[in-house]
Amino acid sequence: MELVLTQKQIRKSFENIKMNPNLEEERKKCSINVFELASFLHSNTDSLDQFLLIQKMFEEDPLLKFKPEDIGASTERTHILIAQRNACISKILKAEKNIWIENYINCMVDLPVSSSVHSSVCIPYLKLLASDEQLATILPKAEAFQIQICYCSAELAHGSDLNSVQTEAHYDEQTDEFIINTPHHGATKWWIGDYGKLATHGIVFSQLFVNKVKQGVAAFLIPIRNTSQQAQLLPGIVVGDVETKHAGAQNDNGFVRFNQLRVTKESLLQRYITLNKKGQVQLQENKKILLSNMIQKRIGHVLELGLLLAQASTIAVRFSLVQDRYYNDQFGTKYIKNLDYQVIQQKVLPQLSQSYLILLTWFEMKNLSQRNIELCQKGDFSISSEVKAISNGLKALTSRLSYIGVENLRQACGNVGLSQYSGFNQILSKISSFPLYEADSVSLQEYTAKFLQKKLKDKNDESPFTKFLNHQRVQSKCNLLSEHEYEDLTNLLFILEQRAQFLALTLQKKIEQQEIANKTKQTSLESTESLTAELSDAFTDTVLLRSFKKRITKINQGQFDIIESFKSMGIIYALGRIINTVSDYIQYEYISVKQLKLINQVYKKHLLKLRANAIGLVDSFSLSDNSIKSAIGVFSGQAYETLNDWVQNKNPNNSEDEKRIVNSAIVQARSQLIQQQPKF
């Protein structure tokens, strides 16, 4: 199925739609070429076409299409919808070869995608860890969705730290089998996606024992349910749904415990580990091989966060342009669009800028992640630690900033933002769980900080991401004194690097002082935990701006207005982060109060500059109304009309049956209340 959508075709599809006059005016005044920007944002026109095609497939499928009526559906109805939709999505995943398609789909659907873990995590792990002989048997079934696999690394007591897993796999030489066992409740595999109800198999990470000697962590492909009768669990396995959750309540997150489960020797994934009949183990793998695919998954999370923030930014920009406020002056009553108020600009436009930085950084990071996987498969782990440190820092910082950003965007829309029909609640629900996916932010940031401490001492470091730590002189005072200097992205990157340097050197000094005081290494880490998080964030700020800066050099230099908009977004992000972390710069006496005032002036100047093309920037995300799932963020700008229609005609609470039930209950309650009133 092919689809080529030119700018002319996109416009034609909206010719018969009544447009809100405010948005119509904004689009006419917009100076950027939306189609050119959309093509650049998606890397090329082919990728843009694929993105539009996926959205079109969802919009035209009666099961996948978003329906306002399904918001707040009953638990039974929700599970039926999940099952039906996932059957359709599985067909799309089977047909599409783009490894990032699950991340696109996760942002488009309003219910969980149960096949996402199977496709985006487990199949790549099979290709990485299973031998050629094993793949010949397993892979065709997995790709055809004849079996559905979940990823079982996290444990209740240890999170996602592979080194700490306590599930055990003992080799029984007499029967040539493995015995999989959960030794205590803390070793329960926990929060496993698709495990509670759906998965037929699991890639289970366990401590391998041969002749009672621990050999290290190994991966097993273990059957969970009978494939012909999926509801029937196999003996020796206890599985269930974890509970109702704060975010993603409908997600199939499960737990599993193994009770002396016997599996065949072939269950051990054997590309990098072999076990002969004498019980002799040969390990060829490096643990970084196991992490390379999880790193890619974390990079995928960055894409999802960027897309979700883009959805929320689209809703807020469109609604704040539709919504007018009026004020009286000496010339009478005047109307002004909500986005023209500085306080609304400060809530909305930094999030729009941030979404662009995250998405363009993702393009740079996905290439780096893929290169790391290819090198690891060849036994070259030279960039593995760096890619892990970068991906850890990105996931931790972008998860937090995106959640805060969406909340700011929701608040910018006033009390309408509280409505389920605004679209914000669904986005917030999805984003709120990201900081805890795979590993919590604290452990991710700790690894990044440790990595940077090593790089601080590496005088031969030539990595473009970290060489500033020891090749760049620490500047005691910021020497930028004019607006023009604060509008140079190279200068702003230098300021962000200075903060990272200050924090790295401070952390190093604290650790050295504690070691001299004979404190243990663990005590040192605990007492510097806050500083490690700050260092990780400071470094990640440099990664985001550096990657963004590199990416925008690839745009056609003739697209002046797009380039200027990109420049403003980079300035807004960098200066916003400097303002939000100004206490560090003041503490190190790097920025003066006078310079801070100048920074604020430049920041507000570029908010106003970006506001002029805000509608074109959100339209360039190329998100359909079906993907945004918001009454107030529709492309036409008919926010009030759509919201009224959904509330009155699509809201289950306003159905005639519901009204009869509620009215009957009210009448009965009032009658009882009257009868129970005391007589005086």
Automatic annotation (TrEMBL):
Signal peptide: none annotated. GO terms for molecular function: acyl-CoA oxidase activity; FAD binding; fatty acid binding. FAD binds at residue 193. Residues 293-452 form the Acyl-CoA oxidase C-alpha1 domain. InterPro entries: ACOX_C_alpha1, Acyl-CoA_ox_N, Acyl-CoA_Oxase/DH_mid-dom, Acyl-CoA_Oxase/DH_mid-dom_sf, Acyl-CoA_oxidase, Acyl-CoA_oxidase_C, AcylCo_DH-like_C, AcylCoA_DH/ox_N_sf. It holds the Pfam family ACOX_C_alpha1. Residues 488-662 form the Acyl-CoA oxidase C-terminal domain. Keywords: FAD, Fatty acid metabolism, Flavoprotein, Lipid metabolism, Oxidoreductase, Peroxisome. Its cofactor is FAD. Its main location: other. Residues 150-259 form the Acyl-CoA oxidase/dehydrogenase middle domain. PANTHER family: ELECTRON TRANSPORT OXIDOREDUCTASE, PEROXISOMAL ACYL-COENZYME A OXIDASE 1. This is Acyl-coenzyme A oxidase. It comes from Tetrahymena thermophila (strain SB210). The lineage of its organism: Eukaryota, Sar, Alveolata, Ciliophora, Intramacronucleata.
